Amino acid sequence: MCNRYRNDLRKLENWGSDDQFSETRINPFRGRVSEEMYPDRVGLTGRLDERGGMMLDAMRWGFPPVQGRVVTNVRHPDKPFWRPWLGAEWRCLVFVSEFAEWSPGPPKGDRWFHLESGEPFAFAGIWRPWHGTRGPKSAPETGDHRLFAFLTTEPNAVVAPIHPKAMPVILDRADWDQWLTGSVEEALELQRPKAAGLSAQR
After folding, report:
1. Is the CB of residue 73 less than 8 Å from the CB of residue 66?
2. What is the pLDDT of residue 196?
3. What is the CATH number for 197?
4. Fewer CB in a 10 Å sphere around the end CB: N or C, the chain?
5. Is 71 exposed, middle or buried (0-12, 13-18, 19+ CB in 10 A)?
């Protein structure tokens, strides 16, 4: 289960050949989103706007608590808990520069995974609106929230030696449109391990 990742906003600026991640679009989120992400922190995501284009958005990581713990990962999207949120209007991209999986060692601790190219990437996420109290005990926020979680799948050959149960679903940029706009069946075809280009930092 992935419960820690990072998103370096500097790496997002001018990512790709369009202006989706220009400094003008990224700047409003500085100070609003965390670059060091743990459950219940606010991260940068992308979702469809009213015209069908992608907009950046700040959302809190973790669906409503189950047995006292927020739900961060989606391993079985066919379960009733997730089914209402699989439509295109509830799918999102979760922007990431690297993610961690816990290793029992040696050495014990988080092992970080990133693309060999050094570029940021996106997890396949889903989101939902929710009203209630979220955030740390020191600064709880009561009101309307947008919450997200992301899909996991079986690990590839890079992740499996560290975390043999699962890894996040990493989307190639060419797959963004299928994830955001495709049918449920088309979107879930992307629930597969990243085949190549991922490295582990020990």
Report:
1. no
2. 84
3. 3.90.1680.10
4. C
5. middle
